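Subject: for your reference before the review

Hello V.,

The reviewers asked for a structural picture of the protein, and I figured it would be easier to keep everything in one thread rather than splitting it across files. Below is the amino acid sequence we used in the manuscript, unchanged from the supplementary table.
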Amino acid sequence: MPLSVQSESIGLTNGSDPFAAHGQTLHPNIRGGNVQAQTRCAKSIAYSGSLDMYPHHDLTPVIGREYMDLQVTDLLMGLDRDRQIRDLAVNISQRGVVFLRDQDISPTQMRELCESLSVLAGCPESSGLHIHPLTEEGSELGDQISVISSEKQKRGGGLTHQLSDTSRYASVGWHTDISFERVPSDYAMLKIHTLPPTGGDTLWASGCDVYDRLSPAMQVFLEGLTATHDAKFFLEESSRLGHPLRKGQRGSPLNYGDSLTATHPVIRTNPVTGWKSVYVNKGFTKRINGVTKDESDLLLNYLFNLVIQNHDLQVRWKWSKDALAIWDNRSQLHCATYDYIEARAGDRVAALGEAPYLDVNSKSRREALNQATTRF
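And here is what came back from the structure prediction:
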């Protein structure tokens, strides 16, 4: 099915700055990125207004929007399909996460919608849907569907096992999906179809707002640094659970093998909004490069605490049966709440975006919104 986005790729050139170890650099004001996985957005994407007919409300001033009376399958089959799905992508990127209840959407349609969001918002031609390293070959729902279930967690799957012997703080689960890949996720969605009577909420936090809370001097300092993201614990989990690791291409030619390690800018730019955000997370970010281990630990703990301790940059979602959440992993973090004993299960799809980069001339969310307000 042909999909297109009216944008251009950002030009690339070889570089020799601190980001060069991570691949070619985007020139002249771009740090990071990779010539094989660059966004096709030459500038941020404007919302066209095609979803204005659907009632909605923002859950907090900073993050979260819920649409009512909107079935996303209607967008997939609509006459104005591409424009409406692109507008949905813009809403997700600007608000961080969009929620919709009572969605009648199959796993196959979830794959179609997630891929369409990514393509219509300018993902690289080389990026597709992600295949998780621990997805079993021949999975009933397909390689691109990750089953999120309490039964898997009871067996010690995913971040719950990694963190189970290190902390009793619920906040240790904050993460951004698959940041250990060289080309990580842009859009991801989760539909919960089985849930306990209470509990199992998910929280999201705005990395853009984290950036806005940094002092100007700290912003400039962090913009010159990269961080190492690592999911080597999946190797142990693969052996322990008897699931062979998927070493082939996982949705991008750059995502392969069993290193499960990547280096990304500490501050990245979201090409859809043009906003800067902090791009480190407690689940996968192990080290800030170019500083001592002690300095790295101090910086990471400070950035993690900005996420954990500021409830005014978070939104908490109480799931209902067949509710759907769609978020932008480039600028948001999320954390599940394991406060239940009953069954909880759902399906997740994650699309791949561009190799993370920083455009030093991009703006913060606060700066961009203030400029937009003063023009009217």
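For the response letter, the relevant points are probably these. The first strand starts at residue 12 and ends at 13. The longest helix spans residues 293-308.

Happy to draft the paragraph if you're swamped.

O.
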